User: What shape does this take?
Amino acid sequence: MHQLWIIVIKEIKIAIREKLVLILASTIVMLIAVALYAGYLSYQQQRSIIVKTKAEKRQEWLNQGDKHPHIAAHYGTFVFKPKTALSSFDFGLDAYNGTSIYLEAHYQHEFMFRPAQDHSSMIRFGELSSALVLKVLVPLLIIFLTFTSYTQERESGTLKLLVSQGIALSRITWGKILAYCSIMTVILSPFFLGMLLLSTISVQQESIPDMTTRATLMILLYGVYLFLFIAFSVWVSQRSSSGRNALLTLLSCWMLLVILMPKTVANLSESFYSLPSMREFKATIEKDKIDGIDGKQPRSEYLAKLRKQYLEKYEVDSVQQLPFNYEGVSMQAGEEYGNTIYDHHMDKLQKIFESQNQLVSISSMFNPFLSVQNLSMALAGTDMYTFKHFEDVVEKYRRELVRRMNRDMAENSKYGDFYGYEAGIDLWQEIEDFSYRTPTAQEVLRNYRVELTSLLLWMSLIIWLIIGFKGNIKPIDG
Amino acid sequence: MLQAINLTKRFGAFTAVDALNLSVKSGEIYCLLGANGAGKSTTINLFLNFIAPTSGTARIKSMDVTDQKAQTKQLLSYIPENLMLYPNLTGWENLDFFCGLGGKDYSKDQLEQLLKESGLQPDFIHQRVSSYSKGMRQKVGIALALAREAEVLLLDEPTSGLDPKASNEFSELLLEMKEKGVATLMATHDLFRAKDTGTHIGIMKEGKLIEQFTSGEVSFRDLEHTYLRLNYNA
Assistant: This one.
């Protein structure tokens, strides 16, 4: 252990005296600081817009005046996906999915205020978030920091001297790994501390119940990711005959793992499991709302059957004779009919998304970058599953809102007297303001078992390579 | 202290060391002479266990270096032809690092004293090794051997490229180590240094030890003649 720490201290001392390392480290720190600050500004800006608009929309709903409940259901309202402090760290899918949705009877509107809408497709790669810096650029720093860790010792002859002292190669390797881990911890500690602080003092506690846990797990996640890169880079340097070879190998691996593979996997998943366009998707739903799923039960038939059932049940000849306004019942039935159609198509769409995600998840077994990418978004609350969860909660809220409007209409108005009845603020107040709680980190992470397993396997593999791999390593050439 | 018993090393069809038998006792300096490719450095590398022998054994204090790697390495100190230390560390820091690895805990003053004893100019002790000459680095190597209290010194062309003054200083240090009972095996091209410093001299050719004698047995002229005759038939 004593020997290990002596090696660690020596490596740190040498790295600190290397000007290039200091320049690279300063650049990375600056990039992360800029990214985090920009992310935080964007988070603050969006959050204040959301808070302000949310309050405005609530007031608009409550103060919409007296009107027919069905008109109120069409008047609708806006709901907003709360921004988490961690989303300033990893924007995830927020930029593409949007954070606001308009709720209205009969229609499931798509999300709005998608930052990516306002940018070219380049944003998909180029958006500078702290997560991007950590996932993509910090590994580059690690490569430049470590590629000569062994080759330089071998080329200069110090490795011979080290080994002649009776030091085991694995101990030298661990010493180097621990030294670089310490250096990276120091470089990134202000950033990690800032993130933890930001999460702890965040005012978003009501929407995210476990911010501190998430922030801690996020730090752990990136700690593991960077450890993997450090350990792998040192191992490659150990196995390479020259610094040039080590650098070429490491840069090739970086290109493959960080740039090419994620893009290829995303493209392949889109090719294998194609999504319909938004226009196609909506058109199919609208068609099925008239003709029924696969033309089996058209809407008109369904409503006629329902009307007949009600007339028989209440033993009356016309809907006017029913003890309630049948229009309310009919509208609710139409709504539910539409919901069934929507759910059917949404399920199909969801299955495609799941297949795409499954492919990415499986690919993550071969690439820890993909695991970290998915887990980082999950912990930031900007992943697909959190988005789906929000979407489900919103749709449930919308359905409840419409159901209450239709029930009020059925109970309090008369058939055919559409403009004669008006509800007021008492009814509007019955609809609770929309509030959303993100699933806990534990709940979200259940969807990422493959990614977690992948990281565990990669850790085991790297440790095995360093401890157990008996290669032909010599302190001398020839 | 040092023993090679039928020590053989082959690289494919090429035999670098061929059934070598030699022994170096405590307080002896055994100089291995030979042309390039004679097998001198390979012999040193076999004792260091940097490479494994094809057959035979290399022993330090009766311990096989391949079986008891850690124990044998604790006993030895090694100075290659061009001792490369960490250029971004000072001579003192390098010595402190290597001593620490060997489990030797010296104070700052003790390490400074060791470096001074090895002939390093005091002004350079706390300067980075990147500013050192080769001779100064070799002196740090000697300081390391002193600090480690090595019983065995393995030297691979240690004076090659040193100016006569530095070379002479190095020889003086070796003689001091000899007086302390250190067994030294030195591969060298330098006949004069071998005769002047060594207690025993062996001449290698094509991996074989073809001649060996004590330095007292021969004059420098005889040594030179023998060396040239054996290596170049001159």
